[in-house]
Structures are given as C-alpha cells and as structure tokens.
Amino acid sequence: MDAKKLMDYKVDEAMDLFVLLKNADARVAKNGKRFLSITFEDESGEISGMYWDASDADVASFVAGKVVKLTGKRELYQGKAQIKIQSIRLATDNEPNDPSYFVPHAPEKRKDIKEEIEAFLFDITEPTWNRIVRNLLQRHAESFYTYPAAKTNHHAYAGGLSFHTLSILRLAKSVVGEYPGINAPLLYAGAILHDIGKTTELSGPVSTQYTTTGNLIGHISLIDGEIVSACDELKLDSQGDAVVLLRHMVLSHHGLFEYGSPVEPHMLEAEILHRLDELDASIMMIQGTLKNTPNGQFSERIFGLDNRKFYKE
Amino acid sequence: MDAKKLMDYKVDEAMDLFVLLKNADARVAKNGKRFLSITFEDESGEISGMYWDASDADVASFVAGKVVKLTGKRELYQGKAQIKIQSIRLATDNEPNDPSYFVPHAPEKRKDIKEEIEAFLFDITEPTWNRIVRNLLQRHAESFYTYPAAKTNHHAYAGGLSFHTLSILRLAKSVVGEYPGINAPLLYAGAILHDIGKTTELSGPVSTQYTTTGNLIGHISLIDGEIVSACDELKLDSQGDAVVLLRHMVLSHHGLFEYGSPVEPHMLEAEILHRLDELDASIMMIQGTLKNTPNGQFSERIFGLDNRKFYKE
Amino acid sequence: MDAKKLMDYKVDEAMDLFVLLKNADARVAKNGKRFLSITFEDESGEISGMYWDASDADVASFVAGKVVKLTGKRELYQGKAQIKIQSIRLATDNEPNDPSYFVPHAPEKRKDIKEEIEAFLFDITEPTWNRIVRNLLQRHAESFYTYPAAKTNHHAYAGGLSFHTLSILRLAKSVVGEYPGINAPLLYAGAILHDIGKTTELSGPVSTQYTTTGNLIGHISLIDGEIVSACDELKLDSQGDAVVLLRHMVLSHHGLFEYGSPVEPHMLEAEILHRLDELDASIMMIQGTLKNTPNGQFSERIFGLDNRKFYKE
Amino acid sequence: MDAKKLMDYKVDEAMDLFVLLKNADARVAKNGKRFLSITFEDESGEISGMYWDASDADVASFVAGKVVKLTGKRELYQGKAQIKIQSIRLATDNEPNDPSYFVPHAPEKRKDIKEEIEAFLFDITEPTWNRIVRNLLQRHAESFYTYPAAKTNHHAYAGGLSFHTLSILRLAKSVVGEYPGINAPLLYAGAILHDIGKTTELSGPVSTQYTTTGNLIGHISLIDGEIVSACDELKLDSQGDAVVLLRHMVLSHHGLFEYGSPVEPHMLEAEILHRLDELDASIMMIQGTLKNTPNGQFSERIFGLDNRKFYKE
Amino acid sequence: MDAKKLMDYKVDEAMDLFVLLKNADARVAKNGKRFLSITFEDESGEISGMYWDASDADVASFVAGKVVKLTGKRELYQGKAQIKIQSIRLATDNEPNDPSYFVPHAPEKRKDIKEEIEAFLFDITEPTWNRIVRNLLQRHAESFYTYPAAKTNHHAYAGGLSFHTLSILRLAKSVVGEYPGINAPLLYAGAILHDIGKTTELSGPVSTQYTTTGNLIGHISLIDGEIVSACDELKLDSQGDAVVLLRHMVLSHHGLFEYGSPVEPHMLEAEILHRLDELDASIMMIQGTLKNTPNGQFSERIFGLDNRKFYKE
Amino acid sequence: MDAKKLMDYKVDEAMDLFVLLKNADARVAKNGKRFLSITFEDESGEISGMYWDASDADVASFVAGKVVKLTGKRELYQGKAQIKIQSIRLATDNEPNDPSYFVPHAPEKRKDIKEEIEAFLFDITEPTWNRIVRNLLQRHAESFYTYPAAKTNHHAYAGGLSFHTLSILRLAKSVVGEYPGINAPLLYAGAILHDIGKTTELSGPVSTQYTTTGNLIGHISLIDGEIVSACDELKLDSQGDAVVLLRHMVLSHHGLFEYGSPVEPHMLEAEILHRLDELDASIMMIQGTLKNTPNGQFSERIFGLDNRKFYKE
C-alpha cells in the first residue's frame, strides 16, 4: 500500500488504499445475485465501481460513510473512469477510519478560518447584534466549522460553510472600505449568521443530505428562529428595533421570493449581503467546474448558474 | 342631529352626525391658503370633502383616527359623491368618540367568533400543538379579535382577522368530513395560527398601515418566530418533530415562493390550508366588489385576482 | 389458482391468477429473438415482466386490454418488484375476461355515485340549465360513470370522472351552506358538466389514451360544443343569457389561460368551481402518492403539483 | 357649411360640419353646473371638446352614436387640439345622420373585399368545410363586412374584420404558392372563419364595445360553437374527422394558451394561420401608429407589440 | 454494390454502399474490448450500428467526416432500425470520398439559389446598403452557399443557410407586394445579411458544431461586427444614418431579448424580417418532422416549437 | 445676488441666483395665454416653477440647456417645493453661463478619476487588449470623462460614466486580491470598455436623452462595433482569439438576455464583471434614494431594483 490518493492512479494501474464509501446501493443482477454499486471518495475526488456477488454481511457492512481498504485496478468503461474491485474490507481501529478525514476540505485551515471570522466580532460594535452573534456561534461552535455550505454545488466540502462565510466577510470589508455610509456592524453580523441554519438543514460533512427539518422549514427560517431563541435566552426583545434589522438581514439574503426569501432586501446592507453571497458562490461554482475542464474547451453546464457552460482559456 | 349613517344621506341633503376621520392631509391652495383634504368614514362606508382655510390649530386637531361632529351637505362632483363641509369639531368625552366604533366590522359578533374558534381547540388533540396554540391565542387575546386581516382587499375591517380564520376553520371541517385520512388537529392548529403575525405586521383596525417590523419581517416569519418563543416559554424543543410540522404549516401557507412563503407546502394538510385560505379570500374579494356593482354589469378589476373583473347577474 | 390479487403475492411466491395486460410492447433482444415487455394490472396495482421468445401468434394475441391467465413468480430486480413469467394464455369465455373488471375503480359504488349526483338535479332550479344538464347526462349515460378523470394523475381509474364530479359537488354544497349569496343552481350545473368532455377526450377506462379529437379540440371546447348541440336539440338559443352563463362556467373552469381555459373566471360561481376542482384534484394526487410512501419519508415528486414531494408523518 | 372633414381645420379656424358623437360623458363642474365632455369623430380622425351648462334635454339627446351639426373653433389646449363648441344640434332626417357614414372605413371597398373573399370559396374543395364556411358567411352576411376587427388596436374601423380576413387570405395564397404540401382548402377555410365570432364579441362598428357575451365566452369559443351549430343545421357530425380539423384551426389561431387559445396549434396549417394573423396585425398596428409620427422620430409605444415604439425614417 | 441509398434498404436486406461516418465514438464493452458506436449518413437519412472489436488503427481511421465502404445488413433492434456491420473500410481516392456529397442538401440547386438571391441586389437601390451587402456576400462567397442554417432543427443541411435566406426573400417580396409603404431595399438587405454570421458561428456543413467564437460572440454580433468592418473597408461611417438602420435590422431579427437580440425591433421592416424568419423556420421544422410521421398520427415533439407535436392528416 | 445654491433657500425666502433650465415646456392656459413650465437645476438639486404670459421671444430663448439669472421666491404648493418666478433672463457672456457647471458632478475630481483609471492600463499586460483599450480611451478622451452613466437611475451626473467605471475597477482589484486564478488583465480591460458605448447612446451630460443611434443599436453593440473598428485601425484580426475574449466581456456584461446581452457570461471574468457592475449600480441607486429619505422611514420605490423601497435607519 502507498500514499497515493484515489485520483492519482492511472488506467490499468493496481490500486491499494483506504477510501471512504460515499454511496453503496445494493441491487440485483440479471442472474439474480446481489451486487453493490459503490462510489469511493477521498480528498482528491471520487470514482465508482461494482462489487459483485455481495453477501448479506457485505450489504450490511459496506454502507455509506464507512472507510474501507480497497484493492483493485482503475479501468475505463464507456469513456469513464471506474474501479475494478478485487477486495474491500472495513478499516480497523488501528487504521485510518475517520470518515471526515476522507472528504474534501476547505482550502484554508479550520483554525485560521475561525480566527479570522472571530476577529470580525470586534467590528460588530452594536451590543445587541454582538451578543446574538456570539450566542449563536457558541451554539454551533463545532458544526459551523465542519459543515459544508451545500449538498452539491459550491462549497460542498467539510468546512465549506465557514469558508464561504469568511469569503463574504472579506468582500464585505472591501465594500465597506470603498463606499462610505455603510453600517458595517450590521453587514458583518448578517454575513456571519446568514447560513448558520444549514447546520440543521444539512446532515453533516459526510454523505451530506437534506434533513426532514431542513426540507420542511429551510435554513432561512431556521436561523431566524434561532435568533428569536437567542433573544429569549439573552432576555432581549426579539421584535425590538435592532433585532428586527438583524432578522431582516438573514431573512432577505436570498434576494428574491423565488429563491426562498420571505422578504426581499429593503436595506442597503441586506442588498449588499445578498449580492456578495451570490458573487462568492458564483466564483466557487465556476472555478470548481473549470478545474475539470481542459484548456480551450467549455465546461459542463452549471445548474446553479442558469445551466450555463464556461470557457477555459 | 339624527341616527343616520354617512352613506344614508342623499344628494343635497343636509348632514349632521359623528364620523371618523380616516385620512386628513394638509395642502396649500393656489391662493396660498392651507386646506385639509379629508376622508370621513363610518360603518356604512366613506366619502371625501375639503375643509378650506384651515388654521394651524385645525391642522393639529383634525388628524386621522379622530372622531368629529360634522355638519354639511352631500354633493356630486364629477360624478362622485363628496361632502360640502359647514363645520367640524372634535367629539368630546361625553359624545361617541371611540374610533373603533366607527370602522366597518365583521358580519358576525366578536363574542360568537371567539367562542366558535375556541371550540376548535378541543379538536386539537395533539398536546404540543394545543399548548402552543393556546399560548399564542393568549398573547394576542385582544388584537386577534379586533385586527383586520389586511390593509385593503379582503377582510379589511375590524375583526376581519378572526372572521377570516373562522371561515377557514369551517371549510376545513367540511373537508375533514369529506376526505378520510386528514390530520385534523394539525390542520386546525395551522389554520388558527396562520395569520396571527398580522397583529404585528399591521398597525390596528383604525387607519390600518403596515408597520416597519411588518415590512422588514412579514407576518409569516413573525408567527414562526412567535412559535419558537412560545416553545421557549413552554420548555418545548422548537425544532422537535411536532413543532416542525406546525411551523411548516404556517411557513408554507402562501403556497408559492412568489407569494412570500419561504417553503412551499410539503404536507397534505399544508396544501389544504393554503387552498382554503385562497378560496375564502377570493369569495370575500369578489362579494365585496360585487356589492357596489349594478346587476347585469361587470365590477371594477380586482387587483388580488389577477386584475379580473366579475359579472353580476 | 386462488383468489389472491396481483399485489398480494410476496417475493419468491408462486403466482397463478387472472390479470389484465395493461401494456404489451414487442421488442427484439440482443440475440435477435423477440420478447414482450408486459405490464400486468388488476385492482390492487400493477407489476411488469418479460415474456421471452414470443412467437408471431403471441405478439398478435397478447395485446393491451386482454385478460390472461398468468403463472409465474414474484421477484425483485434492481430493487423493484417484477414477475418471472412461466406461462400466459388468454382467458376464455368461461373465465373472467371482462377487462373493466380488472382496472382500479372509484372508492364508492357506481350506483351510489349516480344517485347522489342525480339528486343534485333537483337543486338546479333554473329550467334552461336543468334541461341542458339532463340532456347531456343522458347522452353520456354510460361513459360518464365508467370513464376515468385522467390518463394518469388524479382519479385515473374506472368511474373516476363521476367520482371527481361528486366530490366537487359535495364541497360545493358546503361552500353554499357557509357563504350566503351564491347561485347554487349555476354552481351545481357547472360542476356536473365541467369535465364531461373527457368522455370524448379520453379513449375509455382500459388502457386510457388521449384521442385525436381530444388532442385537437380538448375537453373544454368539446363540452362547450355539446352544450351548443344540446341547445339546438332542445330548441334553446345557445347564445341566450342563461346559456351564456353556463358556458362560461365550463369554459373558465381551468382558471388560467395557461391551463387551457379560453376565458378566465369572471363570475363568483366560476371562481369557486375552479378552486374546488383544484382542491379535490390536489387531495387525490397527494393521497394517491402518499399511499406508496413509507412513514417519516418524502414521497416521489408530483408533476401536477409543481413537482413537489410530500412528507408522510 | 362646407365639405371639410374634422381634421382638415387649422387652429383658430371656424368650424361648421356634421360629425359623430363618439363619446359624451355628463359631468358636474366646480360651480355645480353640468357639462358634457364630448369626443367628435369622422373618417378623418377625432377631437374632444367641452359643452358647458348642459340642460337635462342636452344630456338626454347628445349621446354616443348620434350625428350632430357642430359649429365652433379649433383651439390648442396644453399642446393638444380641442374644439371650442359654439353650438351643437342633432342632425335631422333630411341631413346626413347615418352614424356608420362617419366612422373610419377599410381602405378598400366593401364590394371588392366581399368578391375577393368569396372567390376563395372555390379553392375550398373539401365539401364539408365548404358547406360550413358558406353557412356561416350566410349567417353573418351583413355584420362580417361591417364590423371592425377590434375595439382599438389594429383594424379598428368599419369593415376591418373582413379586410383583416382578406389580408390573411392574400398572405396565405403566397405561402401556398411558395411551399409545397400545404392543405390550402383547410388553410383558407380556417382563415375565413377564424375571427367571425367577433360579430358577437363586439357591439358593432359605431362606438365599439365588448358585449357581455363576448366577455364571458370570447370570439374563439363563439365561432367554435357556431361551427357546431352549423353542423347541426347541415346534418354533419360536429365531431367528425373533417370538422375536428376545421375546429382545431379556429380554436388554436391565437397560438398560445396565454393569448386565449384553448389548444395550441398542432397542425402545419394551424401554425401558419396563427403566424399570418399576427403578421398582418403587426403591420397594421405599426403603420397605423407611424401615420401620426413625424419623420426621424419614434412613435408612441404600441401596447399590442410589447409596448415597443417604432422609428419612422 | 449498387446505387441504393442508406434508407432504401429493407429489414434483413444485405447492404453494400458508400456512406459518411456522421459520428464514431470509441467505447469499451463489458468484456473489456473496444468497439465503435457509429452513425452512418447519406442524403436519404441516417442509421446507427456497432463495430465490434475495434483495433487501435480502426479507432484512428474511422472518425466523423470520413466516407467508408460499408457491407452489412439492416436489422431491427428494440423497434429501431440498425445496421449489423460486416465490414467497413475507408473510401479511396478513386472512389466517391467527398463528404459533402453525402450530407443532405437543400431542395433546390446551389446555382439557382445563388442567382435568385443575387437578383434581389438590383432591388437594393440604396447605395450604402447595396455596397455593404455586396462586400459581405463577396467575403463569404463560398461558405454562404454551402453552410447549413443550424446544427439541428430547421435547414440543418448543406446549403440550408442560403436556401433559408432565399425563402425569406420570397416571402418578403409577397409582403412588399401586398402592403404599400414598406422600405423594400432595407427589408431585402436585412434579409440577405441576417444569418451570414452563421458562417463563423458554425463549423461547416459536415458534422456541424458550434465554434468557440460562435459560443462567445454569437452570429448576431458577428454579422454586426462584419458590417462595421465592411464600412471600414469601404470608407463608410459605421455609425452613419443608413448603416445604423441596416445594423438595427440584423441586431433585432430574433425579435426578443430572450432569443438573443440585443435590441428588439423598432422599425416596421425589422418586425417583418423577424416574423418571416420565424414563419419560414416553423414551416421547415414541421414539414421536416411530418416527413417521418405516419398518416393519422402525431409527430414527435418539436423542441423549437414549444415542444409541440403535430398531427399528420 | 449671493452664493447660495438652489436647494439652500427656505420657504418664503427671496431667491436671486444663476441656474440651469433643465426643462422648459410651452403650454396654453385656460385663459388662452401661453406659459412655460420650467424645471430649474444646479448641483444641489432641482425645483419647478411656472413662467406666466410668455412671449414668442421668451419661448424661443428659454429652452432646456440654457443658464438664466432667476429672481423669485421659494413656495410650497400641494406639499411640494416650487418657485414663484419674478424674473428670468439669459446669462450673458460675462456671467457664469456654462451649462456643464450647473449639472451635478461625480463625487471625485475628473483629474483624479482619469489618473486612477489610467493606472490600471499597466495591469493590462496582454498587448492586444492593451492596444485596443488605449485606442478607444483615446477616441473618447473627452466624452468618457464628462458623460453620465445613465439618463436617470444611478450615476446620472456629469462624469458618472468614468466614476462608475472606476468604482468597478476598485471592486475588481479586491476580488483579484481575494481569489487566486482570475485573469486580471481581461477583467480590467472589460471593465474599462464595458459602458463606453454610452458616449454614443446618450446625448451628453446636460439634459441627457437617448439618441436615435442609441435606441436602434444600444451601447452594448456600439462598443462591440468600436472594438472591431479599433482592430481594423490597429491591423488586428477582430475575430482573433484574444479579441474574441474581450468582445465576449463587453457583450455579456448585462448578464441575461432579458437585460439586453446577446450572449450570457461564459467566462469567469465575464461573470465577475457583470456582478460587480450590478453591485456598484445597486449601491449607487440605494444611496441616492436614501439621501432624500428621513430616518426611520422607507424610501420611494426604486424602479431599477424591482420597485423595492429601502428603509433608512
């Protein structure tokens, strides 16, 4: 076994490594025997393969979220990479078996992201907003820095939620510097909180799914409800003037009713937050897609950007 | 002075009665003198008139929401009814001066509406929903039965909010009786709460306006936040299973993102609540408009119904 | 052979029963031999299976709409139920071979539906409407009570057309009882006629398809044309006042141009009919889909409801 | 009195002529006296004026649709032409008093239009279509050649309906000549019938309004119903093959559901009819608007063409 | 070998002919061997087939755009025609090997199309437009008469671009003849130039693809840029009055922003060009689709016509 | 006369100053005499007033774009500020009479804006783009720094075009600094050129109107055409690789077809330019509107932002 990552292997090269089972669906073949259709994943990307003649025990063991030791070979099938599996077994306690180690991560370190975000707290000079933001960062101290920002699309990797938040804060700082008259504390407080509801809407960084609560309430109303709850705990009036402004920031950040905001932006800072959110997401989606696009060609179409394809110089 | 209502007077008939100032705007005439453009209102309807040569004291006294003693004459101007004002003065404490007495009211008695709505509480057999509904009815014990359901459009009269709620409950009961398998407690709980946020979104039954909080948060997120707050008070988990279903009912009741719901209906009961809400509102808007339409003609266009006009047989 | 229905058999259980061929498509396998891809159906539901090595005679005999004696076994293939066919043969005249017996039916008895609908005729007190409705019910005496209301979606079963009509009439009666001032005879007459054009638009209860006439004219204009034709027969003026109102009811019942109505509702009763039509259809679609959804999960997406999925408690 | 038309008079020139009252609204002036706000019209165009101090008899006599003898003067008021009225009186039986003489007319003679349209009947070689078209042209022998094609917009003049029909037939003939394989009889039959329902939808060539029947049924369903009625009279099956194709032509001629067609075009000839209908209407709207536009400038915006304005070279 | 075309062979008939490789994709079969999935094409249409066990040399030789000698047999697979390939080899220099010979062609001769288009130059009597049109026809003397008008959809065959242009010119001539007051030179000049940018947007008549330049600029801006460039060459002001009108014609010919026009039509002639462009394209799309539709049935849905299907009598 | 600006005067205060005539419309009063309805403007804002009994000479002299000496008084009329004019006369050559001096200006100095924009040229390291940008800045050396960016809405003041351009460049620099992998030279070149076509689309900084060329071609195609023209002058291929990318930047900068871009962004840099353009415009529109909004209230609705109103804290 070697230190190679999943995507480092070439066609016909023998593979021997630890990888995560991102998906593992049990099916029945035409001959009546069961097999597993598996997607393997590590930080470098993902590839699929078939595990034939799966026993009941195999079906029970090899489920999404488990780390396995894989031997096999990389092959081409109908123009796509796939793995011909020789053997798989679960990683033991003495081996690397922490799933979170195998999912892609934000491009900066969790500790650095956390420090830089928390530095913005000093610029949130309005006490009500400052207390609410601190309270909610506390509640989600762990998940905020480990969750992705989405199931697919942009920032769909461990730590993506906080990295997306930080990217917006950095843009916000530039805007505050360029245009006089912006309420910076409000903009920063709204930016930090705007997507925290995703820690409830999504299931976590590994094999990310929408939760039932996420589907029925949505991250926008979830964070709005949490602000109310924080106010109750901090003995603040959840319909008081300052709180209403902050709630407006998070409620309106999708910009349009059609995108799920129950109110559209009616403050300068809300408009800016909405636009910076979209700007950062767009850049991430395009750069993520162009990574897999050869020079001089167009990428696949990006669903989140009106199904447009992008040209790579 | 007599017991006639505002709309009972005929053209050229002398008027002498107490009425409410619905609006009173101070303007400057071409000759440089100030005058007040006033809209008078009582239960029977509303008519406008000009109060010429208004003194500073007049401008300060005669403001929207005050009851006045009016003498004058009903006239026709460019085909429209108007009042030629002889005199107005504020009603004294010994005279009828309660503004709420002069605004239009729901067609049934507040006491009856209240009793019939509260009877539904016994059908909300799920304890979590029952406690939350009781808690919020308590909080808004006064305003829920006095507020209108809208600034204009349907149910725009004192008590309109609770009467609209009751009308939906009655329809809901018919639907529950006709179709097996509906979760009646959830449907009734959602119906009672769905518009209570309007007690914060609107300013009240007299001279109804949208509040700043209403504009920045909206009645859907307001009631969702109040459910969270009620949970905090009742020591319930605001993201627990039963509460999530109830929150979904109120969050989705506008049916479409475009109409301000942050989630669309994803439960049978949520779909039914949304459709009954629209059905009741449509009937009210059409009947309200047809009241002023001659037989054999089409009404004015109704903005809330795609600008359609309706034929009166 | 036993009295079990199609869906009563378990995996690996031997089957021996009469069923309907809902579809039977002849195809050529990779080895060059023909086979039939069959969907079997009875009241309990439907399952598919392959009939290998089909002779010319097989292809000619086993066509959609025939009842067959089937022996075989229920199996699982790629997570879906399917039938491994041992033998099929056409049902003889001495055996159950009436296809209409094998298609799903409305949840109430045809006789009861008919009686309850006809009882409403006594409430259609306007003579012109009454005569037209009776004339058209007469014309479609058979098909109105046997046709489905749709090819797929809601009420897509034998008798669905009349059951859908009755469900709307029941709702309409509740609305008439709750709101004063509704023209009940017009509402009931419109409700009974609104979808009768489907007896021409659709091919019938077995293997339902759109007819060419249905595709080129549509059930809305078909019923409008039939009202004209009934007027010609009854010596009524098809552009007379009462007839115009009834025609408006059926022409506008889809509510929006986008849904195929050549006029939008311009009468209170037309608006109500449209909304009750949608309400009943929505409940049927959701309940039909939830029947196959496990508790605590979301259903498949429903095309007719903006592709939304619904949560089953 | 002279032979000048309404628009021939210059500013400050004394006027003395017979004209039509297109509109005449009674109003009350600030001084309490009634006056009539009148729009005068003849073939050359229309101008407005005020008739002060109108007696009860005046209000009763001077109504829309009457021809009057007018003396007065053309003036400019706020940049617009208006008439200062000296006197008006009704035209007597010995004077020109036929209103239809004073409305704008189609640019070709009624007799020529009729002959050219009827010549197309010989190209409708399918007997069913031929009989239906002849039957309906017979029914509307008078109105088809005198009605406008619209209340405003394109062809809003006496004879506009038949002239619009003829223009489409001419275009259709070119298309049939250029593209092989078009069913010319079907295209011509559909073209002749497509707008005949407007003889019921509109009130007539003078002071054109939508009728109640027009508003509740619409000209598309009206003509479809008349085809059914013609079939009943001619003992043809109104759901027979040939009739279904013809009905499809008229039902689909607005092209899109949004424009009021209950079915969209599903035949080559239906698609062509729809497009030629729009092409002719567009040219008429633009040319009508450009007539009043100075060279080198943009016209007013045209509502029927997405509110676009057009440049006049 | 015989003179039969690809589509002339019946099922099970042996084939021996020269055909074009329209597509040839190399894939790997389940057994690990490579095969080519090929689409053959000649003027009569196209059929697919599999070429098993392809060597490296085969994959390198048999690429899209090559003419091959094919022997094999026509078969049916899953209801669709396919070719069982016995052998293929590249056509030699002594054999028919010009790919352009095998692609479908316009239904009229290139020489005739060219002559008829160039005859219109004499009707472009405005000298600026005449010089620009001649200059650009010169630049694209070859490609204009060989390119298709689209990758798929209408006129997707060699010469389709010029044939589509000619069809519009013919319609334009009819319109000019029927309606007085149209600027014929402007309409004809715009019609000739409107789609010439496709000679850069598309790759050519064989295996037509969008070019990178086509994707990034689009044929509308390409031809607008070429008009500027022609002006520079001819020493004309590219923002002069006459040029601005011509540029408006080509820029607005898609009619709506949504269809890629940067300005909507603001001249009568631009509106006409847009509508004739759509009319010709619609007829071509429908007739092309109906060619493969049996009588009495509906065609496949046509994407370019709102996904409608068309009935073939 | 004093140094006060137009908006510095209080109600009833006598005025004596030089101002610009922004608009001056001649009308006829009810008494038949002509008057001028004038809008006065200087850097501080604008107010209207009536100039009664205007002679022919007055109408000829006092036209939009002239500077006048005004004496009068500020008054209130129907709640709005207006000027009671005592006298106006044209400013002489010895007095301040340069209109451009009286229109609002960008908030930074023209010289500074120019220097900062030109500094970006050094970062456009790709020689083709650099040469084209320099060539076009040269062509519009004067107008680029004096024109507004719009007729109304954002940056509708002298120098607004270049200030808007600079604001985008500043934002672009921040984005380039935050996200690795952006082609900065392309982004800067696109940003500088994107709106230069407005120097032809608009009439200039005083009494700004759309030109005929602007209406028929639009600033997007105008600048695209100018790039082609610059290439012709610089002997560059206007369809060469580098030029195509630059043309794509300016063609796609409105982001959506609906907003007038003939292609949507298909490059990362094009997407960023589009979003920064909208971000800067939004901030300018909101801040401009909030300037006239009292604290604690909502602004007027902003047309360019979906008719939303904005709250001022």
From TrEMBL, chains A, B, C, D, E, F:
Which residue intervals define the domain HD in the entry? 164-281
- Give the UniProt keywords, A-Z: Exonuclease, Hydrolase, Nuclease
The GO terms describing molecular function are: exonuclease activity; nucleic acid binding
Alphabetical list of SUPFAM superfamilies matching this protein: HD-domain/PDEase-like
**UniProt record, GO biological process:** rRNA 3'-end processing
OB domain boundaries:
30-90
Query: What's the protein name?
Result: Metal-dependent phosphohydrolase
- Organism encoding this protein: Paucilactobacillus oligofermentans DSM 15707 = LMG 22743
Query: Mind giving the lineage of the organism this protein is from?
Result: Bacteria, Bacillati, Bacillota, Bacilli, Lactobacillales
